[in-house]
Amino acid sequence: MKINAIFEKTIQVETSLRNSRVDFSKLTATIVAVATDVIINGEPVVGYAFNSIGRYSCGAQLRERFIPRLLGANAEDILDEERANFDPIRARKVLDRNEKLGAHAERSAAIGTLEIALWDVVAKIEQRPLYAVLAERFGVSPVTGLLPCYVGGGFYQPGGTPNTLRDEIRGHLDAGYALVKIKAGGLPVKADLERIEAAVDLLGSGEQLAIDTSCCFDQNSAIPFARAIEPFGLRWWEEPCAPDDFDTYRAIAEQYDGTLAGGENLFAAQEVDNFLRYGRFDGKIVVQPDPPLAYGLGEFLKIIAVADSHGVPRANIIPHGGNMMSLHIAAGLGLGSVESYPGLFGVLGGFSREVEIVDGKVTLPTAPGIGFEEQPRLIDVMRSVLADGK
Fold first, then answer.
1. Pair 268, 299: CB distance under 8 Å
2. What is the rounded distance in angstroms from the CA atom of residue 321 to the CA atom of residue 291?
3. Are the CB atoms for 129 and 123 separated by under 8 Å?
4. I need a surface site. Which of 106, 243, 361, 369 has the fewest CB within 10 A?
């Protein structure tokens, strides 16, 4: 049992949207394909993954360091004890070799994307959906039936108005969603408050609305904004400031009565530990790491342990990303919810055709592995990575 080849490709993210800081039309992403010598139903098993949305492609690191390192590994370093399947946790140790500590963002997405692709391989070899494999392997009671889900949207877009936002939210409600997250912080406060008010009026309660300000505030501007939004009783306020600005997070937590959220720009368990230790959230925090951006599933398990040590329940750990990778991790590790990006970011957004939205929750897929094969446009691109690399 071995890895025959690994291919990567940079693709452009298909969108014209922006948040308070980033023009998403400029973003790229990396897709990887890990081809093995394992044959199932007459075809070699191939694992796929991509490095989520919100960062740029990581092809250079993959080509120069991590793909050669993984292809050159000994069997005992990447297979399980029985040599019956691959072991992504062991493989992470191979990928970490000769790497200095710290500076996680420089490499965490390259390693995490490869590691997630290996998990796709593992579950395909077992012929089970990934969430079922994870639940069994890590002794977790998996989510069964339906998994709570919120829809990420409300981006700023050319020509957008509060009425544009209302129409978008009506579409989400008609599709079966109940909890909506929108962007804020990118307009004058009065205009953002109009957007928030329009969303709350339509949803019926601030508890059904979260906002994401994408790290746009410093302490001087964050506190007045906190006072302005507090009467809405929002579900959470995500990323008010930079993830390592602990003083501002702490000041907001002390003065804002609502729940805060953050973590998509934290890439290692130690970073999450610092965030929770020095932010002093007193339990009012939702932690949102993005698995392929943060070294993959193995590191995500460490992040869960760190969050638990700070009193954060699994219900308040929600993988960022709005894709099938995050869905499987949330369901397989018994987490509280998952994000969804329907119709956004081209082939990279949303769930597979197996997944349905029912009363604010998602059904679970049955396809082996992550199930990219049930996303026709995305799997076509992924298979092209494999074909072009051969």
1. yes
2. 8
3. yes
4. 106
Query: Helix-strand-coil percent breakdown of the chain, rounded to 5?
Result: 45, 20, 35
Catalytic pick from 124, 172, 181, 320?
320
| pLDDT value for 142 | 64
Q: In angstroms, how far apart are the furthest CA atoms of the chain?
A: 62
**b/e map 39-64, b = 16+ CB within 10 Å:** eeeeeebbbbbbbbbbbebbbebbee
Residue 244: which residues within 8 A CB-CB, separation 6 or more? 271, 274, 275
- Annotated active-site residue 390? The verdict is no
What pLDDT, on the 0 to 100 scale, is given for residue 331?
95
Alpha-helical (H) ranges within the chain are 59-61, 67-71, 75-78, 88-96, 108-126, 130-137, 162-175, 189-203, 219-229, 246-255, 269-279, 297-309, 324-332, 376-389
Q: Is 9 one of the annotated active-site residues of the chain?
A: no
Identify the active-site residue in 124, 183, 328, 361: 183
Contact 338, 364 (CB under 8 A): no
Residues 184 and 155: their CA atoms lie apart, in Å, by 8
Token reading at 227: 């006072």
